[in-house]
Design brief:
The chain is an alpha+beta fold. The protein is built from seven helices and seven strands; from the N terminus they run H-H-E-E-H-E-H-E-H-E-E-H-E-H. Helix content is about 40%, strand content about 25%. It is elongated.
């Protein structure tokens, strides 16, 4: 059996220990986690009860590349009456908690956490707009020309949102909005803007809804 088949085989074998008593057996939980992490050691799971039955929550723990993995796992699941399989990008959000590794206490971490709490599917790539500000239009336009020569989408425009800075360049980068990806993009733009006297001045992007995310998963998993 492949690791996914082994996981479901182990889950069915351990199933009675998840439903007997007030709490699932700790040894059964540990055994299932070992089986799950044979698929990928970054994966995690939770088990909970609802008015409609039992939930098995498969969590990508904030790693975008694991979302197709757990979607495939859900598709391969055997019939389990009374159980509902939940695919989650970061399961702590379901319990009103904050994973500080995924959403650290930084400006970017705080923004991404608020986006996640509002239901944004942060594991989906989208165009992220970065603002880089300059003292004058000449510098902003020269920076924009440089970036377009390097293959980036960038436009210069007047700006009045910061003291001493009167122009901005808006750079559009396709990326998955994680703290790591955004930080790397900001570092790159700061280095490129330095010779022109520019600095970063924030970023933003459109929300990707749960419905759009489900469609993306279906395309990925076939």
């Amino acid at each position: 059996m492949n690791p996914v088949q082994t996981f479901w085989h182990d889950f069915l074998h351990l199933l009675p220990q998840f439903t007997e008593g007030d709490e699932p057996s700790q040894s059964a939980m540990e055994s299932l986690l070992t089986s799950l992490q044979m698929i990928d050691d970054r994966l995690y799971f939770f088990i909970g009860s609802t008015d409609e039955g039992m939930d098995l929550i498969l969590s990508a723990e904030g790693y975008p590349d694991l979302m197709p993995v757990i979607a495939d796992m859900k598709a391969a699941a055997p019939a389990m009456p009374g159980w509902h399989i939940v695919v989650s990008y970061e399961a702590d959000l379901l319990f009103g908690q904050r994973n500080m590794r995924v959403f650290p206490d930084t400006d970017n971490g705080n923004v991404l956490y608020m986006m996640a709490c509002k239901g944004d599917a942060l594991w989906i790539s989208r165009a992220v707009n970065f603002s880089v500000v300059f003292q004058d239009m000449q510098a902003a336009e020269a920076f924009a020309v440089k970036l377009r020569e390097d293959g980036y989408s960038c436009d210069a425009s007047p700006y009045d949102g910061a003291e001493r800075f009167h122009a901005q360049a808006e750079v559009r980068l396709p990326l998955i909005p994680t703290c790591d990806n955004i930080g790397k993009a900001e570092d790159m733009l700061a280095a490129l803007a330095l010779p022109f006297g520019g600095r970063n001045d924030g970023w933003g992007c459109f929300e990707v809804s749960a419905e759009e995310a489900n469609l993306a998963l279906q395309k990925i998993t076939g």
